């Protein structure tokens, strides 16, 4: 089991940024407006790519880029940065 010391072992800003976006997007679909079941695409950061399960995508690492993974029906199931 890893040692966790509050204030000493903390998530990086990238992880907290990812967690913040995951909280906003998880379980929602991307659309034209934000409401209880959708999130407006225009409100996503400029460096965002939306990835479907069968999408081809580059493996280059860009820490500022947000990756929004969606199911076949368009529901967000994962958010990462890189």
Automatic annotation (TrEMBL):
Known InterPro entries for this protein? Prot_inh_I78
Native organism: Trichodelitschia bisporula
From which domain of life does this come? Eukaryota
Query: What is the name attached to this protein's record?
Result: Uncharacterized protein
